Write the structure tokens for this entry.
Amino acid sequence: MPVPKTLARSALAVAVVAAGAALAHAISGDNAAYVQALDGPAVAAFTYLGAKHMVTGVDHLLFLVGVVFFLHRMKDVLLYVSLFTLGHSVTLLTGVLGEWRVDAYIVDAIIGLSVAYKAFENMGGFERVFGWAPHTRIAVLVFGLFHGLGLATKVQDLYLAEDGLVVNLVSFNVGVELGQFTALAGVVGVLAWWRGQPSFQRSAFGLNAVLMAAGFLLAQYQLAGWMLAS
């Protein structure tokens, strides 16, 4: 069966975005220099930084797209997003305050694999290949922990002042949630509309295959960086 043009265009767009995601996901030099110069609580600055980081964190957003892809009811969307939020909030705060030292490349590679995992699940891959399916809620929570750890590694690179650190971290996390909510509102709206179109059933499997490929691409990029840095 020929691939629809919309699917081909979407595949190209996701591949291009994923290829640059690791670069876009780092906190920019200007933003880093600004917040590192702050001493004391700076709620507005860190809230903005958190929101911007989430919106440009394509790996996080692709995972969330996979999570909500087949969720029809808003209460289910809120449940799964809340589990993800709980996971990444815990490891973001404890990772920075506890001064956990983890390899950012490895964590980001796992985050890339989380995208591939969720897309594979959406395709029914676990039932087809293994005859069973993991518990989706637990998986979303666990991967949320890794996503938060990835955020923690980015914040640790900033060498922030101790004065006001807790307030600034909470503000950063609030900003992440605001950015996540803003992005998801658009995604959920588009998916709700698309599910009513005949093209959804024809293209859903293919787009999740593209999403899975993007996740593997992200993981490969990070592992390549890890090997070069080792």
User: Anything to note?
Assistant: The mean pLDDT is 85. The two ends are 45 Å apart (CA to CA). DSSP finds ten helices and no strands in the chain.
